Input
Amino acid sequence: MNAAPAPFAPSTEGQGPSLGGFNRTLLSIEIKRRLRNRRTLFFTIAFPVMMLIAVGSQYRDTPIDPRLPVSSGGTSVTAFIMINMAVYGAMLASTSAGGAVAIERAQGWSRQLRLTPLTPAANIAVKVIGGLAAGLLAVLGTFAAGIFLGVRMELHIWILAGLTAWLGSLVFTALGLFAGYLVPSENVMQFMGPALAFLAYFGGLFQPLKTMTPALQRIGVWTPTYGLGDIARAPLAGDAFNWAAAGNVLLWLILFGAGAALAFRRDTQRV
Output
């Protein structure tokens, strides 16, 4: 019986692996590693859900449009809070997945990968998809809690808000990778935890930006959480597409992605 090929084995002798070493086996291992980390799952899924229940339950009977009460089919303010918490959960999950590279570096895993044909692009793609898998659970968990609290929205709003929160979290996977390659493993989560809470608050996820002082509003619109949250809430608010918010997300994705690539190159040159 022939032995199963190793995850990083070249496809043909003398040539690199197809897709740079990206394959289902490697991806499956990465996703299982993400989902086995119970502490990470608690903070990325349970924490946003608990915040939604603690804060959102107070507004389950408060309609967004005063002319259309919740009892008559109107949408409650809890829906806004639910979407914000879905964005927050997805960004926590994605950042944690990216930041996990700091632990791998400390354990010497980066050196091991340098001995395989796995390309940097394939390695980062696996991390990104692993982060998206955990982010999807965070979004679905938060939406399930919203349904439990009685949130009612049209189907297209559920889909658009959910996809935006989920896919937009790519920005924070890039941020996590950037921090993971830049900050020592023992400090990365101590650094990222307060940083994410800061970004969530000043980006309007914990409190509407318009309720803050003008000075804080001017700062808040430049945070990466502002753009993602604004786009995710737009279908519910009925607002036109905000190109400034889209530019915000794109700008931070480019900055964090470029920073992660540079930090990764420096790290692999060193090992």
In short: The first helix runs from residue 24 to 36. The CA atoms of residues 100 and 180 lie 6 Å apart.
